[in-house]
Amino acid sequence: TLNNMASVFQNQGDHDKALEYYKKALAIKQRVLGDDHPQTANTWCNMALLYNNLNNTQQELAMWEKAHPVFLNTFGPDHQHTKTT
Q1: How does pLDDT run across 34-69, given as a tens digit for each residue?
Q2: Which H helix or E strand runs over 6?
Q3: Cβ contact 45:64 at 8 Å
Q4: DSSP result, 8-22
Q5: What pTM, to 2 d.p., does this model score?
């Protein structure tokens, strides 16, 4: 739900609120699922897209770099999630 709320805020252009909610969602996913779970990686991807909208390429790249190995290890190199990160 937090991830979905963040997406709504992002679509409304409220990037600060979106980032706040993505960070809340990420903290919960990391605590409950761990850093190696695809749902955690999905939140990093969402944050990467937000940072892209903010023209913050350094943070965007950092999020992609966290998500990619999770997808690679979970789904393999030929999966769509791996290829798009």
Answers
A1: 999 999 999 999 999 999 999 999 999 999 999 999
A2: helix 2-11
A3: yes
A4: HHHHTT-HHHHHHHH
A5: 0.92
